[in-house]
Amino acid sequence: MHQLIDEYLNFLAVEKGASRNTIEGYSRDLNRYAGFVGERGIREIGGVGTQELLSYLARLQGEGLAANTVNRALAALRGFYKYLLREKKVESTPVAHVELAKVWMHLPDVLSPEEMGLLLAQPGSATPAAVRDAAMMELMYATGIRVSELVSLTVNSINWQVGYLVAMGKGEKERIVPLGRTAYDRVKRYLDVARPRFLKDRECDTLFLNRSGKRLTRQGFWKIVKKYAAKANFAKKVHPHTFRHSFATHLLEGGADLRSVQIMLGHADISTTQIYTHVTRERLKEIHRKYHPRG
Q1: Is 276 known to be catalytic?
Q2: Residues 6 or more apart whose Cβ sits within 8 Å of residue 215
Q3: What is the DSSP letter of 215?
Q4: pTM for the structure as a whole
Q5: 200 given a catalytic annotation
Q6: Residue 216 needs a FRET pair 20 to 30 A away by CA distance; which of 18, 82, 196, 292 works?
């Protein structure tokens, strides 16, 4: 099975152009699955049935893994078995009739527009770092880009004449996302006032820099978000992906159509975007319970 997994990962890298992060994630998921199957004494991939697959997913849940992690493991298996069917390595797949994604799906954490406004106000503008932090968080909320996309932006990723950025998403796919006036102004101020202070006499085309004048990391941005969330005294957990979730939810609550949100998020499948319709429905139910006399 490990040889088949290696062949599939090579297929993803060479023919599908999957990113390194995707390859590494799928490698972990599929090799964990191979280990589980091996524990059951199954030596051939064709000997794995639906019951074994369900037992594997149940074990992941029992280990306390996040719902998104379990969903990713299932997605990796779907892709793997689809490849095996295409290459005629198996005649059938145990994932054919397994529809667990919705069962395991949990609603993402989002901030209300008022809470987001409070969070975005935390950095202020007293220092170059504060100007940078304000620009990054505003940009995340304005565009819904991923953290990996944020830290990969270059100075040339933004079209200042038209007011949009070009994000490099999963599978090296580019997409265009509008900036919005507030994000435009804050990022422009960062470029004019703060970035030169970080850059000093160095040369670097990365947009957001750390104090050493080098590219800010995903971990660095996570620490920034954590700091300002604590400063705002939020009871709920706030993490970098909260900006993306809130971006999509607020657009849909404001009347945006699902297809447009899908394009801006860079989702290949609209079913991935549909989780945010669940969020808006849950919010409506919450409002009804709170304000209706018999809610």
Answers
A1: yes
A2: 151, 204, 206, 208, 209
A3: B
A4: 0.66
A5: no
A6: 18
In order of their start, the domains of the chain are 2-104 (1.10.150.130), 113-290 (1.10.443.10)
The structure tokens 């830290």 sit at 151
Q: Which of 72, 175, 239, 267 is catalytic?
A: 267
State yes or no: is 244 an active-site residue: yes
Which of 72, 78, 170, 214 is labelled catalytic? Answer: 170
To the query of whether residue 278 is one of the catalytic residues in this protein, the response is no
Nearest to 197 by CA among 137, 152, 132: 132
Contact 257, 285 (CB under 8 A): no
Q: Which of 81, 83, 184, 276 is catalytic?
A: 276
Tens of pLDDT, residues 66-83: 667 787 888 899 899 999
Catalytic residue chosen out of the listed positions 146, 186, 245, 250: 146
DSSP-assigned beta bridge partners for residue 154: 206
Inter-axis angle of helices 128-143 and 113-120, to 10 degrees? 160
Whose structure tokens read 């435009």?
184
Active site residue 78: no
What's the rounded Cα separation, in Å, for the pair 255 and 252? Answer: 5
Instruction: Please write down the long-range contacts of 83-90, taking CB distance under 8 Å and 24 or more positions apart.
Output: 83/8, 83/11, 84/4, 84/8, 84/45, 87/7, 89/4, 89/45, 89/46, 90/45, 90/46
Q: Is 97 a catalytic residue?
A: no
